[in-house]
Amino acid sequence: xxxxxxxxxxxxxxxxxxxxxxxxxxxxxxxxxxxxxxxxxxxxxxxxxxxxxxxxxxxxxxxxxxxxxxxxxxxxxxxxxxxxxxxxxxxxxxxxxxxxxxxxxxxxxxxxxxxxxxxxxxxxxxxxxxxxxxxxxxxxxxxxxxxxxxxxxxxxxxxxxxxxxxxxxxxxxxxxxxxxxxxxxxxxxxxxxxxxxxxxxxxxxxxxxxxxxxxxxxxxxxxxxxxxxxxxxxxxxxxxxxxxxxxxxxxxxxxxxxxxxxxxxxxxxxxxxxxx
Length: 276
Hints:
The protein has helices at 4-26, 28-63, 122-130, 146-149, 175-178, 188-198, 218-241, 250-256, 264-275; strands at 72-76, 83-87, 100-104, 136-140, 171-172, 203-206, 210-215. It is α+β, with helices and mostly antiparallel strands and 276 residues long. It has one domain: 3-Layer(aba) Sandwich (L-fuculose-1-phosphate Aldolase), CATH 3.40.225. The longest helix is centred in the first third of the chain and has 36 residues, at 28-63. The chain is globular.
């Protein structure tokens, strides 16, 4: 129960705050300055969180075996949708905040400062260019995905944690875009061809290479990448059993995918484990 003294203190505090607000309003320039400083502070906090999550995403994907010394994860810039953030060229497990670089959609580093860039950054830039819904991208070489990328056996959804697979996982064959290559997406035209193969899907396999996964947030793209790996291993095991397989159907998957925070609990766990 609120005591009379607590009530008086609360009223007094409110009166002081109201008086300060009136004073600020009376000093238009000062009030605007306060608002700008608050907005800048909030913007910086959001930017710091984005970088923190991107570093965590690198560490988590390495911890879970989706990335090794190769592969990368990026996120669209928080206030400039035509820019994205990606670590300098290095092993994901070693990434720190100081290693995060900003790029435009041509794959140009904004402030390189002698830091080297991933050769295949065009995977990210071209997907962000054509998919405004995408806010995070992972490129991986996960071993469990290679058999499905290199055979005519389609990757199918095995369970609810990888329900997005039921919408289809196309295979990008770089030969169709550029003939004989070293299988790497080295430039914007190849990145554009990959983005075209991905279409509106959540993931695409890359023949002789790996995969690309996209989502509307870092937690979701990390979750999808991890469970894409688990799904592929489960499917290979089911195929090895030799019996009839019942896959998750597209309409079932659509209901599951309506949860935009489906990996939030797992993300909290992974982030804590990666920070140890």
